[in-house]
Amino acid sequence: MTMKARYLTKSRFKLGLECPTKLYYTKNTEYHDNQESDPFMQALAKGGYQVGEMAKYKYCDDPHGYGITIDTLAEEEALRLTKDKLLAHPNVVIAEGAFRHENLFIRADIIVRDGHTIKLIEVKSKSIANGEVFFDKKGKPSAKWQPYLYDIAFQTYVMQKAMPQFEIKPYLLLINKDAVASRDGLNQLFKVAKDEKGRMNVTVADGLTSGQIGNFDLLKEIPMGEVVERLNGLPVPNDNIPEEHRSLEQFIKWSADLYVSKQRHWCKPSMACKKCTFVAAGTKKKCGFTECWSNHQWSIVGQVSAEQLQETKVTDLWLGLGGATISQKVMEQNVPFISLLNSELLRPETGKEDPERLGMTPFERRGYQIEAVKNKSKDYVFLKDDFETMQAGWNYPLNMIDFETSVVALPYFKGMAPYETVAFQFSHHIMYKDGRVEHFNDFISWEQGEYPNLAFARALKTSLESNDGTILRYASHENTVLNKIKRDIAILKPDDQEELLAFIDSITEEEIDKKSKRTGPRNMVDLADLVRKVYYSPHAGGSNSIKRILPAIIHDCSTVAEQFSQAGKYGRGLEYGSRNFDDHVWIADDKNHDPYKTLLPLTTFDGVADYELFDDLGEVSDGSAAMTAYNKLQWSFIGDAERLALRNALLQYCELDTLAMVMLMQGLIKLDNCENYGGRVD
């Protein structure tokens, strides 16, 4: 049997640029590759497929009629078809053309031949605004643009070597952040689905031409020749690459040799390893992460075994507001485990103390985490006095709200900019002074082509104006979304424009300039900020996500666990009223006391089973999955039963998010009222 050739492709070049060691693990069947989601899901979430399809119409009036796309995945056939098309006519457009030079292989998004010149066009769903620059003040590629710049540079190198008889002119085709749609329903022109082989397929209306799309101002073509030339003169920005391979050309050759010959180049561990996908927990395959960290020579402990690496690693440390600075200070200590960290070396530079400050500083919170790991303690820390001060001005009933949103590259209506926020869902729980809890209201927009932001704002206004109690959100998302909806209101100018704007201003805050901020009289309280300042639990580790904080408070406060572990308590017409559950037990031993693990997989809703399109989502248990589920409702071909099942799953997920805020607040109040609840109350 003929062995399939191994090539350094665009995606593998990108891996090597991030971490050369990954070139040994990728496509190596001995190692587990735990991708967070497949490319279909990632592109669906961002609208990438639709952008790629629309781009074809920018360069060809009827891409499907002219058959410009090389559809085959077979490498040799793709190379032959590309060559035939390219050499058949001096003026030709090809999508997904294949090109090879030695052990390098690319599929170019779009190429346009004009005589002896070929435009090489890489299509990205990333947005760019006027005035943005690709290099920082030190002349280095900006972190934001680095992957895209090196992507087109790699393709340019391959094309120049594969087609030396042509002049290659590279371009990036990006989303123009400063443009607006010239027609309504642009995003509905391109529907996505998987074909019978699991490949993405974009379907367009029969006979669609570029003229029907309108102008292409949303797609900005940027010449990259000078950028590529500049990159050729700079060292590749990765200190793990040997000095003799730091030029772009040498790095390409070196990376290809590593991948093709299956050699492993060891890289120094970093905090970026936290996002490594070559982690084999729960599988029988080898673990790339473990092998990398076991191979390194650490301070204090030297080399460590796979068994030792079960300890809490420094990658699990909460970085707080420090980000890159704290990461650098952690790795400078050159230890693998939090228990070996010297917390004093993570102390920020001395600054002026704020005597009015409430709660833990980020440094203090990291200190609590390090102390808990060192002492193997499971005791929480709760700052009782600060909690009472922070909630002193609250009014009951408490209103817990959560939004689900999407950002779409291709706008819904004429005059709308790309990547505007689409607010398609909210949930609203009310917590009364006497302890009663009610899922008071929710909203969801699930019809295709429906732009929900105005209806969303009106429904939210009606819901929150039912009382004058304090409104709580978890993190800044809800505040950001409402301020963005104000721009939609200004564009659409509905009859109730003034009322909607006044409502949004009353419950939000907004930075006017560096010295001033607008704050509404009923400004929402950030519950996540409160948690960060007054409550630390070792059960949440280094995370403040509500998905981790909720199981922690359930463990630390048994009263919450007791209330929500009983049947007959939560559901329609029960003690805790629900809009989407009949009788649901949220806390169970077999779910590790995690309410989010009790959400049903999508395939069980309304008797829908084995529906392939849902398999990618599994459980709608995080915001990105909810966004992708909504985008499937908008752009995919799914039947009525599946659409209803997906709608029901979204409603239940969002309801849990606000119920989680209720549980969390109940737990904090209970800790405040107890002299000692098994933790440390300061």
Could you walk me through the main structural features you see in this protein, from its secondary elements to its overall organization?
The protein is α/β, with parallel strands linked by helices. The chain is built from 23 helices and 19 strands. Helix 3 packs across helix 22, helix 7 crosses helix 9 (225-232) and helix 22 runs antiparallel to helix 23 (640-673). It has a five-stranded mixed sheet. Helix content is 36%, strand content 17%. The model is unreliable at 602-620 (pLDDT under 50). It starts with 9 loop residues before the first helix and ends with a strand. It has five domains: 1-40 and 241-281, no CATH class; 46-234, Lambda Exonuclease, Chain A; 297-379, no CATH class; 394-526, no CATH class; 534-670, no CATH class. A hairpin with a 2-residue loop joins strand 13 (509-513) and strand 14 (516-519).
SSE map:
Layout: H1 10-18, H2 22-25, H3 39-46, H4 48-59, H5 63-66, H6 75-88, E1 91-101, E2 104-114, E3 117-128, H7 146-162, E4 167-176, E5 190-194, E6 200-204, H8 210-213, E7 219-223, H9 225-232, H10 248-261, H11 288-295, H12 324-332, H13 362-375, E8 381-382, H14 384-390, E9 398-408, E10 420-431, E11 437-444, H15 453-464, E12 471-473, H16 477-492, H17 497-507, E13 509-513, E14 516-519, E15 525-526, H18 527-534, E16 535-536, H19 546-556, H20 558-563, E17 570-571, E18 576-577, H21 612-615, H22 623-635, H23 640-673, E19 680-681
Parallel strand pairs: 3-4, 8-19, 9-12, 12-15, 17-18
Antiparallel strand pairs: 1-2, 2-3, 4-7, 5-6, 8-16, 9-10, 10-11, 13-14
